[in-house]
Amino acid sequence: MRPPNYILKNKAKIASLIPANQAIPYKEENWVSYFPNDTDFKEISTNYPTQISRQNIFDIKTSLGTNPSSKQLRMFFLAVMLWGFGKTGYGAYRTHKMICDPSFLDTIKNSFDEIQRGNIINAYNCFSLDKCGSAFFTKYFYFSGQGSAFSPKPLILDAVVARSLEDVCDGGISRYAKVSRYTENIKAKAYDSDSAGEISSVGESPNGYMNYIHDMEDWASSLEVTPDQIELFLFS
Question: In this predicted model, which residue has the larger pLDDT, 116 or 172?
């Protein structure tokens, strides 16, 4: 698929981006209140005080090896959520709810394994955790796919990226995601890709997500960049 004109016009800017360098600051005190005696969080915050970058999480992913333990995956997931939420006030609360979900370890293990096999759609369909919608589990997928040989690899698709996609794509956002929108006074109650108003959140759409990562792969090939450079450009 040919990239949209706006993407083509910004080829040089996209090519200059280095996703690995994107560092997200966080407030340790917000997280300590929910993870006061958590050895995994303590290790992460000791190694990466005040902020955590994509490269930091790439390094954690590399350290997992081919058959990571439940403890390794738990720390990896926690690091991804710390990067994903950053200073967002409710981030630690939501992450704590995710980790306390009875299906947590099975979910992150099964989806991680599916990603390693290149079965992204299977990982998407089997992922279900309290307070972890697609905006955040696609972050986990993205980092889980780093270093893998298959293509296309998972990418992040959150509300910020979706808003930019809607702005640059002539066909709208419905090809890639179901979205909820803000109205003048309140958030729209239902996911409705075709209504007016700014996108407030993305809902689950396995086929839409696969369209997104395939199209980003095609666009990246046309521009001679990486798909996550385009994703970071859209986020920025």
Answer: 116
